[in-house]
Design brief:
This protein is α/β, with parallel strands linked by helices and 410 residues long. It is built from eleven helices and 20 strands. The chain folds into two domains: 287 residues, 4-Layer Sandwich (Purple Acid Phosphatase, chain A, domain 2); 116 residues.
């Protein structure tokens, strides 16, 4: 059985002012291409299918895109196994699971052999079997969503905790208990090939510059030292930095795209693994995915830096850029600086500018020999600082400032 492991799609995500829909859909289409090229039997998506920033209409369009991209794979007998992550909307995913259960009411009992050619979404700890299409042998799949109180702490007692640390400790214990209960289930065969898919932070993993929209203090970190001995392959999601832990068959595949500046050096990919009747065949193989360049650009002297950047980045139309700009009032025209940088980096996702305060030498015009008055200088400074604000709002603020300045002069 050929399994393609991927995770952290974050479909419908945004980075600053940039909608990442097209970038992420292209990555999903490349995953579908690998399914065809590599004769994949099972596509395992280890959580965070959707972004918490996705709107309801965006989620609907995402499902439609999935249908068009993966219909050939499903129609050929391929199976998609997914599970929920910390960024997946619990209500939406639970509703989706309920709707899928109505369509296939006989699917869902622990240890059941499920039919191929379908998509399965696990919103709770799940244990199913799939038969290999060629060999006919069964492979066990244990699917463990991200540990949240709603998913893992059952009953009123489990929802009572006095601090975030106590909550995390309860979730760590509940996650381990849920996995232990599945492996102790009467239908679970300790000798049969088995695969774990989990969206969780495993102790000992390398986070990289930062977790994605979650702090280390907020995250639930579970122990995983025994997992490589318990499963023929461990497909992990949640940590976006690709890596293996303890053994080469226990892996974070990483996200399918660079999602923020902390991932600028990550090489993205998906992982292909073969499972036979006696377990894993060979070591997992990484298949590369193209990732959008993302970086920070610092402008200290616009007059010198902008011509240089124009020459250094002739084809940056698709790059995601964080702009940090310094300019000198009276020397640099901020509006022109922003316009020039916008032409070089049209997909800047964030920008910040700061005036250096070197106003003195620029207040006197050599041509006239006269200096600008205090009121005029303040008016021009405010006009530049407010250049990106709404025009009516800017004019209203300038009118108030001019009135105050006039009162001071009188």
């Amino acid at each position: 059985m050929r399994i393609l492991h991927t995770a952290d799609w974050h479909l419908g995500d945004r980075l600053g002012r940039i909608d990442r829909t097209d970038d992420l859909r292209k990555a999903v289409e490349r995953v579908a291409d690998y399914c065809k090229q590599e004769n994949v039997d099972v596509l395992l998506v280890a959580g965070d299918l959707f972004s918490e920033l996705a709107r309801p209409d965006g989620l609907r369009e995402t499902i439609r895109h999935w249908q068009s991209v993966f219909s050939p794979f499903l129609e050929s007998g391929g199976t998609i196994l997914t599970l929920t992550g910390n960024h997946d909307n619990e209500n939406f995913c639970q509703t989706l699971v309920s709707a899928m259960s109505l369509a296939s009411p006989t699917v869902g009992k622990p240890g059941e052999t499920v039919p191929p050619g379908r998509l399965y979404l696990a919103a709770d700890p799940t244990f199913i079997r799939l038969e290999d299409r060629m060999g006919g042998f069964p492979v066990q799949f244990v699917l463990m969503p991200y540990p949240t109180p709603h998913r893992f702490l059952r009953g009123e007692t489990g929802l009572k905790y006095g601090s975030p640390e106590e909550k995390n400790a309860l979730l760590v214990a509940a996650w381990a208990d849920a996995l232990r209960e599945i492996r102790a289930h009467p239908k679970y065969d300790l000798k049969a090939p088995s695969v774990l898919g989990a969206h969780v932070h495993v102790h000992g993993s390398t986070i990289g510059p930062s977790l994605f929209r979650i702090t280390v203090e907020e995250d639930v970190v579970v122990e995983g030292a025994e997992l490589p001995n318990q499963f023929d392959y461990v497909a992990l999601g949640h940590i976006h930095k690709p890596q293996w832990l303890g053994a080469e068959h226990m892996r974070y595949c990483g996200s399918i795209e660079r999602l923020d500046l902390g991932e600028q050096a990550d090489q993205k990919g998906v992982i292909l693994v073969d499972i036979g009747p006696d377990g894993r065949n060979g070591e997992p193989v990484v298949l590369p995915l193209h990732a959008t360049p993302i970086y920070e650009v610092v402008v200290l002297d616009p007059a010198e830096d902008i011509p240089r950047l124009r020459a250094e980045y002739p084809s940056a139309n698709n790059d995601l850029v964080n702009l940090q700009i310094r300019y000198t009032a009276g020397k640099d025209q901020l509006e022109d600086v922003l316009r020039d940088l916008d032409k070089i980096f049209p997909r800047w996702y964030a920008r910040d500018w700061k005036e250096t305060g070197a106003l003195g030498p620029t207040l006197v015009s050599p041509a006239t020999g006269g200096g600008k008055g205090f009121g005029e200088t303040v008016h021009e400074y405010l006009a530049q600082e407010l250049i990106q604000h709404d025009e009516a709002e800017r004019d209203a603020i300038l009118k108030i400032a001019d009135g105050l300045l006039k009162e001071m002069e009188n």
